[in-house]
Design brief:
CATH topology of one domain: Phage tail protein beta-alpha-beta fold
Mean pLDDT: 78
Low-confidence stretches: 97-119
Radius of gyration: 46 Å
Distance between the termini: 102 Å
Number of strands: 5
Strand content: 5-15%
Order of helices and strands: HHHHEHEEHEE
Helix content: 40-55%
CATH architecture of one domain: 3-Layer(bab) Sandwich
Length: 192
């Protein structure tokens, strides 16, 4: 144990005036100072004063709530990534109004009911030759097809043809491919 202030002042006084104390008193003081302090007892006292006695335990429901929140956040991140990559269409994307056909339907009941329906007018060509795509263009738009480069007939494409758009818009979409050059002169499509 640590000597108190009284013992320290007594010890200093013994050093300064050794004649005022008997040999037994000096020996008792030296004996007391030679004992090592009990560190275990001191540590227990310190720990009791400075550390909390009980460990905080998180309630079961709180850990479950944290797990659910983490799952929701991860799911949101995965959904955002799939929308960004284009795997899933964005629910906030504007629709192309040229893609929609509106039909009005009435009934003979007391009220008139008007419904709007979206008719999908697109054809998907998956690994189809350019000649097949242009043959369908020819039949639909009533145009003639001329090939300057015969090799371009065999080019295979993945193409989504939107029938709601005019011919020039669809030709522009096809011309976006690197090896395709289509020009229109009246009712003739020339493929170079």
């Amino acid at each position: 144990m640590k000597p108190t202030d009284d013992k320290n002042s007594l010890f200093r006084d013994m050093q300064n005036n050794p004649d005022g104390y008997s040999d037994e008193q000096i020996e008792a003081m030296m004996e007391e100072l030679d004992h090592a302090p009990n560190t275990e007892a001191e540590w227990e006292t310190f720990a009791a004063n400075h550390f909390a006695k009980e460990r905080r335990i998180v309630p079961f429901w709180l850990s479950k709530a944290a797990a659910v929140i983490a799952i929701i956040i991860v799911s949101g991140i995965v959904y955002a990534a799939t929308v960004a990559v284009g795997i899933v269409p964005s629910p906030f994307a504007e629709t192309d109004s040229s893609n929609e056909t509106i039909s009005n339907t009435t009934t003979s009941v007391a009220d008139t009911i008007v419904t709007n329906t979206k008719v999908e007018e697109s054809v998907v060509f998956d690994n189809a030759p350019l000649s097949q795509i242009l043959a369908e263009f020819s039949a639909y738009y009533h145009v003639k097809i001329e090939y300057v480069n015969v090799n371009s007939k065999s080019l295979r494409l993945f193409f989504k043809w939107n029938k709601g758009r005019d011919l020039s818009s669809n030709i522009e979409a096809l011309n976006a491919f690197e090896r395709i050059c289509i020009s229109q002169n009246d009712s003739i499509l020339t493929i170079e």
